[in-house]
């Protein structure tokens, strides 16, 4: 790891830290937002889901743009857009302005992670790449933690408008930092590398997409919406106990990230088996909880569940490693966008399916069981595209991808068929 690469990565990851801070700012201010904007539970849910939908919908367009414009430009645009969103939120006094604000925050957030991942892919030796990607995600999670106490304290001390203007100021600081420190490779002046279509047609990209979808969806749905009500209403835990379990999930996930990153870089031939292990253990833990006699599992089993769920986020990062090893540098952004967008769409599908099932049955056990078809589809597709990727590599006689993914930063351009 060169000093220059480390400084550039640190700058990008600090911008990502700020993006996660912005992303989580609504969650810790939800009660104040409901009072200020005169919203009920459905209105608050609309704000949160719109932000996520914008984030997911922009992954592929942003991936294409980051290949053309570079990471620095996209990080600058993203930080400025999020800052504008927080300024609008600071002065919002109705649902419409709130929706505009969270749309801007989601749009700027969508530009950040992909830009940092591209920066990592092009700056670090391939064997270290999985660990650096996991560290990027880990540091980003500190942004979520950092948003909690400062925003709550500021809301109580200074009020709504100064708090979110301060958040906007943090985004401006990130913009200045990126502009001053980061240097990005200029886009190619020659014939552009085929982007979105070529990335999608590469089996390794879709292997990464289904990896991200299969591993991320359960923990994401649990953390973003359904974990707390399930633990309190479905399992009868005290709110404080449920909060500790959710904090445990986040904390253990931070510890798992570097470990899985090291293993993915050290044993690239076994990446898909890591994915299948994470998915299989998650399904097994949920099965034990859902089938426990009497309906309410003991606390030790719920602890096991959240510890297993903690591997989901780090496991999903392996999908980005597939995007790297199966695509040339000129379309890393497009491939990463496909992987990230697919994973978030799967997560939102689980969130929606759980909600619909709860409305129909009122039973958390049936509602949580909707995850099984998603896991099954994910595992089938991982196995399918793993086989396709291996056949393609065998035909091309390339020692890359699933076979030697840690030896090469990105698959070099392949001739058209």
Automatic annotation (TrEMBL):
Lineage of origin: Bacteria, Bacillati, Actinomycetota, Actinomycetes, Streptosporangiales
Pfam families in UniProt: MFS_1
Transmembrane segments: 43-66, 73-92, 98-120, 132-152, 164-182, 207-228, 240-261, 273-293, 299-320, 332-358, 364-383
The protein's name in its UniProt record: Nitrate/nitrite transporter
Record InterPro entries: MFS, MFS_dom, MFS_Efflux_Transporters, MFS_trans_sf
Gene3D superfamilies in UniProt: MFS general substrate transporter like domains (1.20.1250.20)
Membrane topology: Multi-pass membrane protein
Keyword annotations of the record: Cell membrane, Membrane, Transmembrane, Transmembrane helix
Subcellular location: Cell membrane
Residue ranges occupied by any Major facilitator superfamily (MFS) profile domain in the UniProt entry: 8-390
Primary location class: membrane
């Amino acid at each position: 790891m060169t000093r220059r690469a480390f400084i550039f990565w640190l700058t990008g990851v600090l911008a990502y830290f700020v993006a996660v801070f912005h992303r989580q700012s609504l969650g810790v201010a939800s009660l104040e937002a409901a009072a200020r904007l005169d919203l009920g539970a459905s209105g608050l849910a609309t704000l949160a889901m719109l932000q996520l939908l914008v984030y997911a919908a922009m992954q592929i367009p942003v991936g294409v743009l980051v290949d053309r414009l570079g990471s620095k430009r996209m990080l600058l645009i993203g930080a400025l857009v999020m800052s504008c969103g927080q300024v609008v939120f600071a002065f919002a006094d109705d649902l419409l302005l709130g929706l505009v604000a969270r749309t801007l925050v989601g749009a700027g957030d969508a530009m950040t992670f992909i830009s940092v991942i591209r920066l990592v892919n092009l700056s670090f030796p391939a064997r270290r790449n999985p660990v650096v990607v996991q560290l990027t995600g880990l540091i980003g999670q500190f942004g979520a933690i950092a948003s909690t106490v400062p925003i709550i304290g500021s809301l109580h001390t200074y009020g709504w408008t100064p708090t979110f203007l301060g958040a906007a100021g943090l985004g401006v600081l990130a913009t200045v930092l990126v502009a001053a420190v980061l240097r990005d490779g200029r886009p190619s002046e020659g014939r552009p590398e085929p982007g979105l279509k070529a990335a999608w047609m590469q089996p390794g990209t879709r292997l990464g997409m289904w990896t991200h979808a299969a591993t991320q969806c359960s923990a994401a749905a649990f953390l973003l919406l359904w974990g707390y009500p399930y633990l309190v209403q479905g399992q009868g835990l005290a709110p404080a106990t449920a909060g500790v379990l959710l904090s445990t999930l986040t904390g253990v996930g931070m510890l798992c990230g570097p470990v899985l990153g090291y293993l993915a870089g050290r044993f690239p031939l076994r990446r898909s088996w890591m994915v299948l292990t994470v998915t299989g253990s998650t399904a097994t833990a949920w099965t034990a909880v859902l089938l426990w006699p009497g309906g309410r599992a003991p606390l030790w089993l719920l602890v096991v569940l959240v510890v297993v769920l903690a591997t989901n986020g780090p496991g999903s990062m392996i999908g980005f490693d597939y995007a790297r090893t199966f695509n040339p540098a000129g379309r890393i952004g497009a491939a990463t966008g496909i992987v990230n967008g697919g994973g978030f769409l799967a997560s939102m599908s689980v969130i929606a399916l759980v909600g619909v099932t709860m409305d129909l049955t009122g039973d958390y056990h049936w509602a949580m069981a909707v995850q099984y078809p998603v896991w099954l589809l994910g595992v089938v597709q991982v196995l399918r595209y793993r086989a396709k990727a291996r056949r393609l590599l065998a035909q091309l006689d390339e020692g890359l991808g699933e076979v030697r993914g840690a030896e090469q930063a990105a698959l070099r351009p392949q001739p058209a068929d």
